[in-house]
Structure formats: C-alpha cells, structure tokens
Amino acid sequence: METYQVDLSEIALRIRREIVRMVYSAQSGHPGGSLSIADILTVLYFKEMNIDPKNPTDPKRDRLILSKGHASPALYATLAIRGFFPISELSGFRKIDSHLEGHVSREIPGVEVSTGSLGQGLGVGVGMALAGRLDHLDYHIYVILGDGEMEEGNVWESLMAGYKYNLRNLTAILDRNGIQLDGYTRDIMPLHDIHSMVESFGWNVIEIDGHSFSEIESAIEKSKTSERPTFIIANTVKGKGVDFMENNPKYHGSPPESEELYRRAISQLGEEL
Amino acid sequence: MKSESLRDAYGKELVKLGSKDADIVVLDADLSSSTKTGYFANAFPDRFFNMGISEQSMVTTAAGLALSGKKPFVSTFAIFLTRTYEQIRQSVCYNNAPVRFVVTHGGITVGEDGATHQIVEDVGIMSGLPNMNVIVPSDSIETRSVIDYLANVDKPHYVRLSREKFPVINDEDYEFRIGKSITMKDGTDLTIIADGVMVSKSMEAAEQLKKQGISARVINMPSIKPIDRDAIIRSARETGHIVTAEEHSVYNGLGSRVAEVVSESYPVPVRRIGMRDTFGKSGKAWELFSYFHMDVKDIINEAMTCLEEKNYENIP
After folding, report:
1. N or C end of chain A, less CB within 10 A?
2. pLDDT tens digits for B219-258?
3. What is the value of pTM for the model shown?
4. Final residue in a domain of this structure, among B167, B196, B222
5. Distance (Å, rounded) from C-alpha B89 to C-alpha B66?
6. CB nearest to A113's CB, from B25, B49, B67
7. Which fold has domain A8-268?
C-alpha cells in the first residue's frame, strides 16, 4: 500500500464540496447525512484502511460497508478523490446515463456492497468478517451506520451475531447526528442510552467527536487491537460545514434549493464560485 | 412405491459437498435438526453458523460470506425465510451474491402444524426477484442432484423442500439441469405439468386416465425460474390442452408461469390445480390434498374437463 501524506482537513473539505455539487446538480439526494460522515470517511480512506485503487479486488484489502446507503454522495466523492474512478464522473450522480446510482451501488469501483435499505450492512459485515477468519486473512471490516438506522431490528440481530462469533475484525461506526427523515431521533424513536445498550450486547464501545480527526484515528486504531468487536459512537452534526444545513432535518434528503444557497454552501466549504 | 425424505437427502448431500469443497458454509436459524443441516454442523462445526432465531441476520450474513467468495447454504422453514424478503432482495439479489437458500417445510405437507406454517406463496415471492433462480424438486434423487448443481452457481438460488417424505420417481442416474424439464411419461391427448410432490400424483393420474383410453403426457418441471419454455410450447402445440399441478397457490406459481408462456407463444387452455387464494389448515399431510381439491382424483377431473372442451371444439 502506498503511504499517503495528505492534509486531512483539505480532503474533508473537498469531499464536502463534491457532496454539495452532486446533490445540487441532481436536485436530489441526501446532503445532511453525507456531510456528517465526511471526516470519518477521510480518516478511513486516506489514513487507516489498507486499500489500493489500482487493485480494488485484492483479497487482503480492508472493506467498508456504508450501511446508511443514502449517504452515497459522501462515499462516491471519497472514492473518486482517492482514485477509484475519475472525479468528473461525480457530475452524473442520480442521472440516467451514469453508473452513480442514487443509493450505493456495487457497480461502482471501490464499492463493496450495494446498500440503501437500512439495517442490513452490519449483517453483511458479519459475513465478511467470518469469511476473513475462515480464510485466515487479517483484513478489517468497517460498517458505517446511521442513528435512525439503529431502529431496525436487523442491526440488533447482527450485534448478537458479532458478539457470538467475537468478530474482532469488525468495527461499526455510528454516525450519531441525532436527525432522521421525519425529525429528531429523540422524538421519532429515542434510543435511551445507546452506549450502554450496545455495550450490554457484548461489544467494545468507544465514544468520540466524529469531526475530530485525531479522535477518529485513535478510536479506529484501538478497534484494530480490541479483544471484542468494536462499536464507535461518533457524535456528529448533520449537515456539518454548511450553516443552513447544520442540525436541520430539512436537509436530510433535500438539495440546496437555489443558486444563492448553493454558492453560499460552496463558499463556506472553502471555494468561491 | 418407496418414499424418501427430501430434507434428509439434502442434509447428507451437503456433508458430501462439504468434504470436497472447503468454501461451502452453512447457516441455519435454530432449525438445523429439522432442516437436516445438523449433519453438516456435526461434520464441519467451523463452517456451520447457527444464527439463532434471527433470519434477517442470517440472510445478510450469508450475503457477506458470498461476496467474500464463500458458498453459503441457508436453511430454515420456507415460511420463516419469507419474513426476510427485503434482505433477500437488497443484500442478496441486488448484489447478485450467490447465496443458496434451501428451505424445508414448504406447502401443505407440513400437515398438523397448520396454516401458520404452510406457506403456499413462496415460489411466487422468490420468482419475482431479479437474479433469483427457483427450483422445486420432486423427490430425494432430484434433491441430491439439485444440491450438487448448487455447489458451483454464480447467482442466488431458492430451493423448496418438504417436511414429508415423497415417493421416489426419478431414475438413480438422474441429473438436474437448470431451465430443463423431464418428460416422465409421453402422451398425446393433453399434458400435465407438475412440480414437487404433484409430479408423482400426476403420474398416478395419468395411469388411471390411460385405463379410460386417455393419453396424458406428464412433465416434471423442477426449474420454475428459468422455466423450460420450449417444453411448454411443444406440449401446447402437440397436445392442445395443459393441466398444471403444484403444492402452492395457483397465483404466481408454476401454473401462472405456464399460463404466461402459453398465452405469449401458443395459446391453448390451461387449467391449474393448486391452492386457490386460501391458507392451509391442520390435518394429516396426505388428507389435505383431498380437502383442497389437489389430489389424484382432482387431476383426473381437470383432465377430463379439458378433453370435454377439446371435443366440443372439434364439433364441426
């Protein structure tokens, strides 16, 4: 694997700009929950994960499953910037002549699993982690979950399985931004105490600021040597980086609705149009 | 006629496959002693995963294993797999992950456990999924051959087995081929197309029809998807009338598929035997066929009705 000397904050800003461009161009898509995971993806793809864009099917590679598949713009932008496919292709997002499906599609280089229906990615991660163990390969599986997604029973079934098989090569990262489509998660279906809930399922739980590169990096490093499967609660801000989107449920699934707002967003993300 | 258990044949064949191929892994949801994956669990404990009563977890985990190069066989009762339809759709079929679903206790031959456990919609549900193939074996010999075939497939498959033993009707050297049917008995007056246990019942019906001077062709159609279009069209052309028989709803099962092919390519009357928009009920497995008008006598009645229509058409 090549070593990457990069400025993580520059990359995260660039991912965020591409997210906003994609949803604005498509006039469709999910900016809020994409912006909230940009820093996590930056650390994973530019610092932590053993991956090679020139050899995307290497059996020894680390694997990431974006279980919250509606945050596709964040993953697509990350993969393109990391070199899995040309950045110019991002403009095709959600359009008929493009391979960039609305929700994450396995047709796209660098994508491991198609996702979009919530609750399923952790189970797929359990299967991949079991396969790695059977094959005596020491790759690591990362699964990014949304906090609305924690309402799906499938997630809790898979937490049981992760504990049963003690999948130390599996790390779940919860994008704890507190908002889902219909509003705040605390109103829609509160998770009383997610930290102790998951801990009581037998997982190693680490809680961090999901926008701090050092905290993300440190949590992931700890998860690699944990004796148990790890669940990282990343406290994040939905819409992070764009003032009118931050903590605003409206931008769960809506693009900036005017050119003025679009310019404002891009400007706040470090580029003047 | 000798009867044998299809699920027992499955369980034992799985152990044979497992000893030849280290990539074969098996998942069950707390029913391994009934589905007979327990044989594999005993032989290869490291490659057997009892996922508990968590079918969604079982299916998504199987998808992950398949996407990592493993060959997962997934078993539970047919009824309980359908609760995870959407995981099958998204994580398995949309990813084209070659997961082998081999379910037992399909249809009304579950018997005494009753309507809650007698699924008669599963073939239709699974056939509607892009990338999914659907197979309904007729006996233990066909089951073994289907399981061997599954070892090296590159897409998802659904195989429906039964709780009850079925009469053994295929030759020992039988070899299953996807998308192909088997003519069990040739005939000229009409064709009976059946799957599962209804193949043996159809053969019995054909014997009795023969005594009345009626020549019925009997086709075993184990591959519901893809279906053997050529055999269906040839039968429509050569015998003019078709009766279908399945231990499943007449909606979206074998009868519907046959009717689709016939109406698209060579329209002739098709009469369907199966469950008619109803749930099953408790009772002895073999009593239920009579109760739901799916027994040998009912196949004969439908055949006779066909031929009466045929004679009526022939009046100049």
Report:
1. C
2. 999 999 999 999 999 999 999 999 999 999 999 999 999 9
3. 0.96
4. B167
5. 15
6. B67
7. Rossmann fold (3.40.50)
